[in-house]
Amino acid sequence: LVALQGQPLVLECIAEGFPTPTIKWLRPSGPMPADRVTYQNHNKTLQLLKLGEEDDGEYRCLAENSLGSARHAYYVTVEAAPYWLHKPQSHLYGPGETARLDCQVQGRPQPEVTWRINGIPVEELAKDQKYRIQRGALILSNVQPSDTMVTQCEARNRHGLLLANAYIYVVQLPAKILTADNQTYMAVQGSTAYLLCKAFGAPVPSVQ
């Protein structure tokens, strides 16, 4: 059986015999998670809530009476629709900076990640573009004001699809010091004094 992460799993074991057999459920790899498992209909039905990857594996039903026993095995594979580990975020950059957009997703099977820039798949853009894709991240080097764009990350496997838009804004702003002039700092002799110089600009200005 293939079951989805986060969903319930229901297994049935219908046994016949006289005297009426009793039913037990076993898990060879370890104990059943007591906080998530319930048994119904005289143990004929097992329900396991909120499946996780750790619930992969074999489940056995054992039917017994005074004359003998019978077994039945289920093999459960837990899979998952794509979900975010790190969603790409819009950001402001200055000319010459490197832009990085992370699109980190997880799922079972591992989702395939594709990128679009201004609606065009990156595979269809000219190969001399200054972008590269590295471990699911879109990286653009030496961005300029003309590189302001919308990007779209898409992740899919057979259980679902994730989409996220993120904007790259490239602006040019002159350096400006935000810390007020002529500030007085009081410090105890022998301690460390920290003098502040808060600056803003695009690209990010260096401070000396």
TrEMBL record:
Keywords attached to this entry: Cell membrane, Disulfide bond, Glycoprotein, Immunoglobulin domain, Membrane, Repeat, Signal
Keyword Ligase attached: no
Subcellular location as annotated: Cell membrane
Position of the signal peptide: none
Positions of the Ig-like domain: 1-77, 82-169
CDD domains with a match to the protein in the record: Ig3_L1-CAM (cd05876), Ig4_L1-CAM_like (cd05867)
GO cellular component: neuron projection; plasma membrane
Organism: Pongo pygmaeus
Family matches, as InterPro entries: Ig-like_dom (IPR007110), Ig-like_dom_sf (IPR036179), Ig-like_fold (IPR013783), Ig_I-set (IPR013098), Ig_sub (IPR003599), Ig_sub2 (IPR003598), Neural/epithelial_adhesion (IPR051170)
The protein, known as: L1 cell adhesion molecule
